[in-house]
Structure formats: structure tokens, C-alpha cells
Amino acid sequence: MDTTASTATAAVPAPPTGLRVPDVVNPDAIMRLLTSTGVEPDPTCAGLLAELADLAAGDGAGTAADRFLAPGHADPGQRWATFVAAHAYDGDAPDTLARPPWTLPAGQRGRPLTRTEQALCRVAVQRWDTRSDVTPAQYALAEASATTGELAKLPIDAVTVTGQVQVALLGGRDQLPRTVALDDWQSRFILARLTVLAGRDRTLPFVYDGTDPGTAKAQASASGNLARVLRVAGLGDDPTLTPTSIRNTCARRLHDDGTRLEDIAAATGAKSLDRLWTLLTEPAPEGADM
Predict the structure, then answer these.
(1) Strand order of the sheet with strand 159-162?
(2) Which fold has domain 115-281?
(3) Domain ranges of the chain
């Protein structure tokens, strides 16, 4: 992994952010937290964590935060994600951090999550209230390309477990029906949801417990839950990130792995190759390996 931070000092004086770095910044431990989700953070993450640790050791907690997040850095989005990761490891609530507007990256609305952002979302889901299994399962399915419309209508019997967890997604206006295979991390939340639903009519909704399943109300509930994951992960102030970003991340990761465009379309149900290509060729935020 390339652990070199993109830039060590800001180009302009650091304005006060009102933020503070944690008392102790342990880069190796924070990296272990992020990689425990099954996602390898962006190549610059380790170097940025080392820079944050150096600043924390040499400056006061507030000054270190101001310098690390100062305007003029080439990688503002990556710096914010790294700063959030340090607080998440320290046990702080990332959604309580007031994000400076100059740390917001440029990009189209609904852009895919960077690797570090995806790891932060997974950390948030791993720490979700154990009394609620719906939102973690919705997030896992969204990562596997499910739309909120598909989440609203998905029945229990769409899920099969034969060696690995597979889900038959129903398709919609812009997506074709398809069966997706979940990775180990995603599967744990689907299996937990299946355990809760054991013995129920398998035609009932899989990830919706409210009234009027399969309607716009159920879809809005799924969208709200996914937005809450982004918010709890410390990413809720970014206007380029929406619930759609989570499902778009699936296409981005397949593209990263060298998958052919036609095969990405088949895996994600995309009807338009042109729209899919536009999504995949949108420049990534500086410092990100999307």
C-alpha cells in the first residue's frame, strides 16, 4: 500500500475549525479497524493517519485539527474521511463532528463511495443498535446494487443460502432483474435478518417492517435508513453522497477489478451502458482509489 500523504502542509493559513483530534492517534490500530470491514482503505489513508499522528504529537488538539483540515490541501475529502476514522476508533460519534465546508470534495451527486468512505460506513453498520436489524440488512443489499425501490418490494423468499447468500433482486424502472451473490461481510447481516424472520410467511417483505410494503412509503423508509448510515459514518454533510452512492459503489468496485462494462451492467442491472459509463468515468476525489 502506498502510505504517502498527498501533501503534508496546507497552502494557506489554517482557519479555526472548532474541531479537535483525539488525544491519541494510533495509525496502525485505525487501519486495522478499517480493514476489519473487508475493505482496504484508499492508498493515501495510512500516510494521512501518520501525518495526523505527527501533528497531534507536536501541536495542541485544536491546532492539529486546523492544520490537518486546512484549505489548500489537494485531498480534502480524503483528509476528512481520515479525520473521521481517527474519531471512530477513539469511540467518538462521527455524526457530531461539524464538517468544514472546504473539505467537501467536488463530484456528481450520487458518486460512488471511496474505499475509505465505504469502510467508515461498514464500521457504522457494525456498531448499529442490535435491536434494529433492518437498516444493516438494507445497507448490505444496497452495497450489492439493490435500489431503494427493490428494497421496498423484496420478499423473504428472494434470499437463498446455498453455500453463499444470494438474493434475487426484482429490477425496476432503470434496473433489470438479477441475482446477486453477497460477500462475507454483507452476508452476516442478511443471515441475522433471516434469523429474526424465521417461521414467517416468506412472501412478506424482507427488509421492511412498516405498513404499506412495496409502496413509495416503504421506499422512502429505505432511503432514509441509508441516508442515516451515511450520517452516522460522518459523511452526511457531503452533498455528493446520497443513498444511491452506496449502490453505485458496487459498479465502481467491479470496474476497479477490471470487469467488462457489459458484465458490470449485468451484475448491477443497469439498462443503460451510457449512463453506467458516465458514472464510472467521473473523476474520483483527489487521493482516492475509487
Answers:
(1) 159-162, 164-169, 178-181
(2) hpI Integrase; Chain A (1.10.443)
(3) 27-103, 115-281
